[in-house]
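Forwarding the complex inputs:
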Amino acid sequence: MRTAISPLVLLQPRSVREALRMLREEGPPTPLAGCTDLYVGFNAGALADRRFLNVRGLGALGGIEVRGGVLRIGALTTYREIIRSAHVRRRLPMLAEAAREIGAVQIQNRGTIGGNIANGSPAGDTLPVLAAAEALVELRSLDWTRKVPFADFYTGYRASVRRTDELITAIEVPRVEGAQWFRKVGTRAAQSISKVVMAGVRADRPRIALGSVAPTVVRARRTEDALASGATLAEAQEVLRQEISPIDDTRSTADYRREVAARLLAQFWLDTR
Amino acid sequence: MSAAHRPIVFTLNGRRVSLRVHPLRRLLDVLREDCGLTGTKEGCGEGECGACTVLVDGQAVNSCLVPAAHAAGTKVLTIEGLKGRHPLQRAFAESGGAQCGFCTPGMIMAAASLGARPTLDDVRTGLAGNICRCTGYEGIYRAIRKQEARSQKTEDRSKKTGARSKKPRRRAR
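Prediction (whole assembly, two chains):
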């Protein structure tokens, strides 16, 4: 491990309230839960943070339930729990599909959906699903609870509207009408970061979200508009190619990503016909 | 280790341990360096290769990504906890499931988390996070399937003998 741990501090709250107080008064520390992303940075010596807040084990932040037609998933819910949840399989099957392709079993047993959101990688596998499902992110501080539409959550590359004294406590997903679709394209099914990842909902007005093609996960609204107003698939694919802004990096090239995104759109459209 | 840290108490291979280690120390380092259990290996150090796989409360985890604080109150099982007598260990040896051996402890722990008789599909999914650069995986899958066949036989036999023997008798070598 390339990070010296002796100067690091782990704060260990016993309740959500104590955690929120520590977030406001002590640093603020970086929340830590499944550690499946955070420790990769640790091991590589690439993490600048020095103070951490252990939120794992705060029971109030776990659990999956359906209340008043809304699917509520606690921030500490692991991918394993998502895969096994009857509520998720029935109401948001594309989330279960995404969770199945995150890392492998070892990662799925520890990684949390709140962590995936907080980490804010443009390649985060659950994020296109949450964008296409129009989920709300619940943020709590000592003084308030607010629910932010997923589309308004990210403000730039790994940047979000979460204030440093707020904790992501849950996501809420209203009923999703229409067929759901998810596909990740990477070097292999397990253990790979996506080259392109897409989630779609086929309704009168289709909803399409993509990862790894822009600084944040994005909704392809112009492509959605084109499809909703009766454009041909070929026309919609051209709109999508223009709408996204992928880059060349170690995993893929901008050209390849543009082409694969267009093909995923076609696959989504054919599969949900 | 330092007296400055609060003790972290957990069950390691069936025995209670209490360690004063930094709460952010990797479970991998706690096992290898503080407990002297070097069966668990470090491969990539980033959750890709699975060489450091151990079970925490029965679930496979990458011990390079688990802070010591998260072991508190849990049951941790490492390759040493199988005591060389687990049917998987014999099956790996007999079926060419190990070549250089570096991935083997992680492979066996991941396989052990799959329960008694996983399907081939379960095995493929369950071991997707364990990388082996020698075997090409066929020997590993064969070993896990062979172990299943053997536990099936053991089960059949114990059904026949009924409640006569409470402990499964160890086979003579």
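The interface with chain A takes residues 22-26, 29, 45-48, 50, 53, 59-62, 64-67, 69-70, 110, 113, 125-126, 128-130 of chain B (CB under 8 Å).
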